[in-house]
Hints:
Layout: H1 34-53, H2 62-72, H3 92-100, H4 110-118, H5 122-131, H6 146-152, H7 160-169, H8 176-185, E1 196-197, H9 198-205, H10 209-218, E2 224-225, E3 239-241, H11 243-252, H12 264-272, H13 277-283, H14 287-298, H15 303-312, H16 320-330, H17 336-340, H18 343-354, H19 359-368, H20 375-385, H21 397-408, H22 413-422, H23 429-438, H24 450-461, H25 466-473, H26 477-486, H27 497-508, H28 513-520, H29 524-533
Antiparallel strand pairs: 1-3, 2-3
Amino acid sequence: MSLQPVSFRKGRAHLPRLSKPYVPGKHDPRFWSDDELDIIRRYYPTGGANACLAHLPAHRTNSGVYGQAKKLGLRAKVGGVPKIKIEFPPDFDDRVKQEWQQLDGKNRGAVAALAERLGVPRWQLSRRARKLGLTQPHKKEPPWTAAENALMAKVPLHDPDRCASIFHEHGYSRSPTAIAVHAKRIGLSRRFSEGLAGRQAAKILGFDDKTLTGYCISGELKATKRDDNRLPQQGGSRWVIRPDDLRQFVIDRLERIDFRKVDKFELVRLLTTEVAPQQARAKGWTLAEDSIVRGAYARKMKLVDIVRELEAAGFRRRSTANVSTRAQILGCTSQRFNDAWCNREDRILRDAYVARVKIGDIVGLLKAEGFDRSRGALQMRAIVLGITVDRVPYWTDEEKKIALDGLRAGKTHGEIREDLRQAGYTRGPTAMFKFAQKHRIVRKPDPWTDDHVALLRQRYAEKRPVKEIAAELGKPLASVRSRASQLGLKVRLPWTEAERQILVDAHAAGERLTIAAERIGRPYPNMVAEARRMGLSFLKRTVATTPPRFT
């Protein structure tokens, strides 16, 4: 089973839920309530389980009452039930022998069904079958041998069914449950150890889960699927990534890694781990390839041309990032890019760095002047010029004062961000949340009451906008959307001309799409889809006016 790319331009049919939706305040009947426990405390000491069952719901059993009484430390004072001797009919043994041979041992409940047909309790039937020699008494599992313990260290303990098959192939009869229990007894870990999980690899590279899944689906990152029989509603089988494949992905696509987000220690461990000899010969660099790279750098060739020259010489295809990394290892430095930069570009770059303009906006400034430079080229040139600075958007004293005053006044994060925007500052929801958390002014959300839920259901049935529902309930938009999703409520409102005009005005004014989303009151993915349908792009647009303040 493999995941397929999903298009969000049109709706898709959702698979049925695997579990019942969450209903606030409703508990599963298998859990014991306080009233039921009070009944056990009241009637069990004097009347036993039968007295309790007379006042408990119909789904409660004797064994359940005994278990709860044991937890509560209660003992019944009533005497035992007098024993009644059961007289079997003359042909009972013959009928048991005849029908016992026809039982299906793999069918649970077959013995109980036979006892019901014969009109005797199940335990009496089992005891009689043992006396007649039809079955053997249950005994403890045979002791584990040294060979079996040695095999336990080699089998994939994360899959007990597969382990049981391997044991059977070696001549041992052990059930999956027995293997799992024995692994716990001898202290063996049952974690998956045949590779990295998708979330582990994403954490090492600083990606989110969806980005890494996209690379796995497209084939850019070699990955396989675990045979764990997960259903499509559970996301399908999980990805398994070999450390060597992940290391090669990092080397081939170094330009896609944001080293500010990676797990530094795990990434260093990944890159410094020795590669197997056969893989080193297959993917390593040969002396002839190194010679071609040195000569190409001496001739100031482009990375793309170096890749083509390597292919023309009969070597495997290398990415531009792979060639650049190999050149750095060989100590090759190219002056091609440094020589190509003119004084005018350097002046624009210096002024923009002094004004703390964002990298994307600097690309737009250079493009407005007729220069085409990438983000990576700008950052490398800034290193050469020695003008790199700490670009972390620290909070100013004025921002802190506005935010703290708003938090102490009981304003929401959205209202405080609007106050900051009017003062000339821009902060996102995450930055505002972390600021409040740092200053220990984290307000607990108001609990949802039954009246709130009833009003939410009513407004969703009326197809009211979520922004109006949130204002009426006095709760944040995110809280309303989250609770509606838990309750299975959905509302599809068509776009109005006024909303589309707000989107067009935001694009013309150079605002971010998140600001337009807050103004309209629609989710960000909805805004992205509508902007794409209208042909509006909010990504890396040319900046021809005064450089904006870096935030």
